[in-house]
Amino acid sequence: MRTQMIWGAVAAFAALAALAGPARAVEAVPLPADSATPQELNAKLLVCEACHGPNGMSKSVIIPVIAGQREDYLLKQLHDFHGGERNVEIMKWMSESLKESELSAAAAYFAKKGWPAKATPAAATAAPRGIAVCQACHQQNFMGAVQAEGMAAPRLAGQRYDYLVETMRAFADGERKNNATMQQLMAGVSAADREAMARYLSGL
């Protein structure tokens, strides 16, 4: 019952978004061979936007921006949601609604969107203690990269503060388990330092 209620709410949000204006064509990615129609894939992407915002530019402080995020990272997360390595109920349902080729298409679609520009430039702040450990994987500019072992490190610069600090906490407490390195690193960082790091990264 709970599953049906939440999924129904998401579908309703997507329907409202579609009614609010003309449906956007999914011209940014090729149509997967096993998608019935462009409209079918477009409808599924609209469901993503019900939570993540138009074109993946989240307006909610607790939902991550996925517009302009690394494609390899987005695809890995979709697979992790689908396989249960990452446990977010609504994302598991969403990933299971996409065919394998559509997972790749969805990741490519949002990755090709521009990262939302800040309305006003952030004031320069000193890098907090411990931030260098993030640069080892996420690069000096925190734009993300593929690691030597093939692990995809996401862009952190400009991501939502609330999402970042909660994600760090979840890794530290062992609640998020789809990256053992992040679990180990965050477990060794104090809550105060994690908050300072999240604040700094979100302001970039």
What report would you give on this structure?
The structure is a single chain. With 204 residues, this protein is mostly helical. The protein has 2 domains: 2-111, Cytochrome Bc1 Complex, Chain D, domain 2; 132-202, Cytochrome c-like domain (Cytochrome Bc1 Complex, Chain D, domain 2, Orthogonal Bundle), CATH 1.10.760. The chain has helices at 2-20, 38-52, 71-83, 89-97, 100-111, 132-138, 161-172, 180-187, 191-202; strands spanning 145-146, 152-153. It is globular. It starts with a helix and ends with a helix. Residues 1-22 have low confidence and may be disordered.
Tags for this entry?
2 domains, disordered N terminus, globular, mainly alpha, 9 helices, 204 residues, single chain, Cytochrome Bc1 Complex, Chain D, domain 2, two-stranded antiparallel ribbon
